[in-house]
């Protein structure tokens, strides 16, 4: 039995009992709020919408077409504009404060923050252990900061110089970071990964990871994609840093992992594998890899943070597939949009997915829409018209008590 299967049994046996109080009339009400942030393909614009009503919640003009990344808390969306050398930050206006047995929900207006992160060619943003790392492809520098400092307008970033310029990444793990290592051969710009401390000093040996690209965190573990496998980065108290372990994917056949997403309620990872497959990754399990072949080429995929066993995969024929990560099988498929061929440039406008509560938000660039798809039935419930060419998308929100 895999670790996911054992956890599924544990989840199935759990029963939650409501708390009681003599002062029920004073209890806060529970509300759910989700916002969508949509990046335009042709212009430097990010548009925000209420996911339930489709109401416009803000237009934020920046310099270039953005790549969007949300913070773990959902309080900030980063609009990375590598070609402009800038990263804009949007305060989402959605705040969930954890109080143990419940979370308080506070909803305010979304705003474009005045602080802009700059660099030669800023690229990957990775969050971990309460820190956010921005990697600059143009210099190889890593800028470290905390979200709270950014939101408070008191940003005091730390800049580390772990190596030369390359299309790389850095992932914070406790007091350390895992960073990509550039190669001397232009044909092999990324050769491996290493651990550095917060002063930039290397800890331990470099681990080979040719063409390293893509990373994700699940629980306290990171996984990185390589041309010949993956590297698992697990915390290690013995050296105060992390242990990097390379695992080959040769037995899976032709292909490699270059995009990874990490589970929230369960520890697992879902990665791409070649153009027409995905792979489930369970570090520490007897069967670490489970490859799932798709009926045609993959366009995008997303994990459901609330329904832990659900993953959604859009293929170029316009079909959306529900993957059960426990069984490793596609259990439902439905046509949700017209075909979007994967031929052509990788930056051509194609649909992107984000999960917002009980719906999958799917951008449809050709029709200027965000399609809201039920996570239960995979049927379209409604659409949100969007000006321009809707492309990248992130969702932030959740349920909490409103006092």
From TrEMBL:
Keywords: Signal. It comes from the Bacteria. Residues 1-24 form the signal peptide. InterPro entries: Quino_amine_DH_bsu. The keyword Signal applies. This is Uncharacterized protein. It comes from Aureimonas pseudogalii.
């Amino acid at each position: 039995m895999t670790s996911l299967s054992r956890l599924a049994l544990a989840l199935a046996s759990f029963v939650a009992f409501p708390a009681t109080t003599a002062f029920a009339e004073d209890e806060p009400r529970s509300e759910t709020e989700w916002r969508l942030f949509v990046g335009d393909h042709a212009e430097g614009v990010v548009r925000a919408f209420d996911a339930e009503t489709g109401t416009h919640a803000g237009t934020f003009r920046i310099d270039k077409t953005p790549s969007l990344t949300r913070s773990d808390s959902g309080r900030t969306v980063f609009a990375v504009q590598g070609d402009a050398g800038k990263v804009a930050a949007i305060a989402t206006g959605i705040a969930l404060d954890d109080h143990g047995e419940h979370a308080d929900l506070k909803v305010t207006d979304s705003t474009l923050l005045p602080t802009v992160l700059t660099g030669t060619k800023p690229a990957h943003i990775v969050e971990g252990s309460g820190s956010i790392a921005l990697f600059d492809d143009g210099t190889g520098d890593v800028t470290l900061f905390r979200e709270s400092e950014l939101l408070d307008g008191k940003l005091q970033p730390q800049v580390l110089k772990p190596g030369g310029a390359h299309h790389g990444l850095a992932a914070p793990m406790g007091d350390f970071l895992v960073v990509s290592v550039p190669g001397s051969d232009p044909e092999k710009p990324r050769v491996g990964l290493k651990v550095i401390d917060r002063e930039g000093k290397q800890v331990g040996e470099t681990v080979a990871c040719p063409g390293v690209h893509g990373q994700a965190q699940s629980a306290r573990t990171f996984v990185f994609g390589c041309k010949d496998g993956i590297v698992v980065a697990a915390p290690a108290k013995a050296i105060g840093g992390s242990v990097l372990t390379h695992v080959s994917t040769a037995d899976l056949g032709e292909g490699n992992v270059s995009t990874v997403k990490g589970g929230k309620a369960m520890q697992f990872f879902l990665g791409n594998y070649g153009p027409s497959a995905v792979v489930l990754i369970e570090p520490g399990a007897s069967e670490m890899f489970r490859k799932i072949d798709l009926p045609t080429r993959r366009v995008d995929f997303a994990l459901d943070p609330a329904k832990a066993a659900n993953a959604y995969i859009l293929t170029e024929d316009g079909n959306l597939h529900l993957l059960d990560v426990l069984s490793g099988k596609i259990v439902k498929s439905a046509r949700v949009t017209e075909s979007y061929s994967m031929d052509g440039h990788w930056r051509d406008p194609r649909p992107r997915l984000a999960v917002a509560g009980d719906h999958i938000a799917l951008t449809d660039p050709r029709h200027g829409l965000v399609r809201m798809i039920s996570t239960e039935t995979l049927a379209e419930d409604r659409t949100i018209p969007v000006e321009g060419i809707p492309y990248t998308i992130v969702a932030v929100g959740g349920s909490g008590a409103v006092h």
